Amino acid sequence: MKTKLKLSKVKVIRQREISPGVFVLSFIRPWDFTAGQVVGLAGHENDEARLYSIASGELDEEVDILYNINPDGKLTPWMAQLNTADNLWVSEPFGSFTGDEEKAWWIASGTGIAPFASMFRTGLFKNKKIIHGGKDLQSFYFHQLFEPELNENYIRCSSRENGEGIYHGRITKYLREHSNLPLDEKYYLCGSAEMVVDARDILIEKGIPFDNIISEIYF
Ligand SMILES: Cc1cc2nc3c(=O)[nH]c(=O)nc-3n(C[C@H](O)[C@H](O)[C@H](O)COP(=O)(O)OP(=O)(O)OC[C@H]3O[C@@H](n4cnc5c(N)ncnc54)[C@H](O)[C@@H]3O)c2cc1C
Prior knowledge:
CATH superfamily of the largest domain: Nucleotide-binding domain of ferredoxin-NADP reductase (FNR) module
Low-confidence stretches: none
Number of helices: 5
Helix content: 10-25%
Bound molecules: flavin-adenine dinucleotide
Distance between the termini: 5 Å
């Protein structure tokens, strides 16, 4: 998504390709934020910014951004070329897709796992269940973070590849098969419009109150 925001210059301190075409870019944290919020990023001060979730914790010194290259896009192919000490333009953080201490299901497709990584790194992981959908076994970003703490409450769904501990099928299949979804817990959905809309429909069909479903669509 493109949007006009007031931007300030930051310097890239690190850029890592964590999976083919998927990067974590880091810069020193210039502001406070609430886990789950987004920032606008751009290559130049007057460019329209694209929105990205912050993937690092509220008290971390560095801000991490998880993104994948969109080959037809303007920003991400350029961003992937950045090196340490290069400039990037960033907005202040904003957004209301924020987590809390309550029991909840964190449901993400692809890079939609980023806000949950931020909530997790902020310490909000108790009473949480993560369901992450990925196209292949390399798409479960931050699994080293989630797996040791959440164990069986960390579920990786892939319909294309089989692997140890991987649920074979999409997030929507997993949710449909789950016969007793708790009605009094919160369900956070983040990622592609297709996943968010389909998962939301299934949750509503299963009796989850509309107010317990909180969504962030990446477009
Ligand atoms: C709230 C929110 C949070 C998000 N968080 C993340 C995140 O954490 N990580 C992440 O990876 N993504 C995230 N996104 C998605 C992200 O903002 C971008 O959409 C994505 O990275 C594409 O950026 P880009 O500059 O490469 O592509 P863009 O240049 O924005 O292009 C996007 C598409 O539009 C088409 N397009 C571009 N210009 C034109 C034109 N002139 N005419 C016709 N078509 C055109 C391109 O073909 C391309 O397919 C988020 C989105 C939202 C709304």
